[in-house]
Design a protein that fits this description.
Layout (H helix, E strand, L loop, with lengths): L1 H21 L11 E11 L3 E4 L5 E4 L2 E11 L4 E7 L2 E10 L2 E11 L2 E7 L5 E18 L6 E4 L2 E13 L4 E10 L2 E8 H4 L1 E8 L3 E10 L1
Antiparallel strand pairs: 1-4, 1-15, 2-14, 3-6, 4-5, 5-8, 6-7, 7-9, 8-9, 9-11, 10-13, 11-12, 12-15, 13-14
Length: 217
C-alpha cells in the first residue's frame, strides 16, 4: 500500500512541476504562490472493526477542532496543500462477548498532503484534491478496563473538495470536505479484567468538514 501511494504521489508531483514550468501566469503577477488558511473542523468517523476472540464492533466519537493549513501553487491551477490538525476521540468496543467496553480516549495526529486542481474565474473558486495522510496515535488513556492499548500508525489516501469565496484580492472564505482513510491494528492488553490480550483491525475513515478564512501571499 505504501509503495502504491508514494508512486502515485511521485507521478502527480512530476506532472505538476511540468505544469508549473509551462505556466507563465506568475511572471505577470496573475496569481499568488502561497495561501494560509485557518478552519474549524467537524470530524465524524465512519468506524468499523474486526475484534479477535470477543467479537463486536467499535464506536469512536466525533470531534470539533481547529486546523491550520498551507497551500503552495505550482501554477495558477495546480497546488499542494499540507493540512495540520490533531483531535481527541473516545473509543468503545460495543456488542462484544464481554458487553460494551470503555477503551478510554486517544489523540490522532494525521498530517495530510493533498495535490489540488483549482478552477479559476470569478469570486467563487472550487477545487478538487487527492493525497495521502500519515496518522500517529498518541496520548492514549486506556480507560477502566484495559491495562494497556497500542495503536499502530496508519498511512492511507485522502480525497478533498472545496470552495474559496474571495472577499478581496488577499482574503477569502473557505468551505472544505475531506474523506480520509485511516486504518490501525490495535492491541488491547486486558489481562487483569478479561484475562486476555485482544487484537483488533480498526477502520476509522473520518469525514472531515471544515469552514474557515484564508489569506493569499
Amino acid at each position: 500500500m505504501k509503495k502504491v501511494v508514494f508512486s502515485f504521489l511521485l507521478v502527480l508531483a512530476i506532472s505538476f512541476t511540468v505544469s508549473a514550468q509551462e505556466d507563465e501566469g506568475n511572471k505577470n503577477g496573475d496569481y499568488s504562490k502561497w495561501q494560509i488558511q485557518l478552519r474549524g473542523l467537524v470530524i465524524t468517523p465512519d468506524e468499523s472493526a474486526t475484534i479477535e476472540a470477543i467479537g463486536g464492533d467499535v464506536d469512536i466519537s466525533s470531534a470539533f477542532v481547529p486546523e491550520l493549513d498551507f497551500t503552495y501553487f505550482f501554477s495558477e491551477n495546480w497546488a499542494a496543500e499540507l493540512i495540520l490538525a490533531t483531535s481527541n476521540h473516545d473509543v468503545k468496543a460495543i456488542g462484544t462477548a464481554a458487553g460494551d467496553i470503555d477503551l478510554g480516549d486517544v489523540w490522532l495526529l494525521p498530517p495530510t498532503l493533498t495535490f489540488q486542481y483549482h478552477f479559476t474565474g470569478g469570486a467563487l473558486k472550487p477545487y478538487l484534491g487527492v493525497g495521502v495522510n500519515y496518522t500517529i496515535f498518541y496520548g492514549i488513556d486506556e480507560g477502566p478496563v484495559a491495562d494497556d492499548i497500542d495503536y499502530d500508525s496508519s498511512i492511507g489516501l485522502a480525497f478533498q473538495g472545496g470552495l474559496d469565496f474571495d472577499l478581496n484580492n488577499d482574503w477569502f472564505l473557505n468551505v472544505d470536505i475531506k474523506k480520509i482513510f485511516i486504518n490501525t491494528d490495535a492491541t488491547i492488553n486486558a489481562t487483569t479484567a478479561l484475562g486476555a490480550t485482544v487484537g483488533a483491525d480498526v477502520d476509522i475513515n473520518p469525514l472531515v468538514i471544515g469552514f474557515g478564512i484564508g489569506r493569499r501571499f
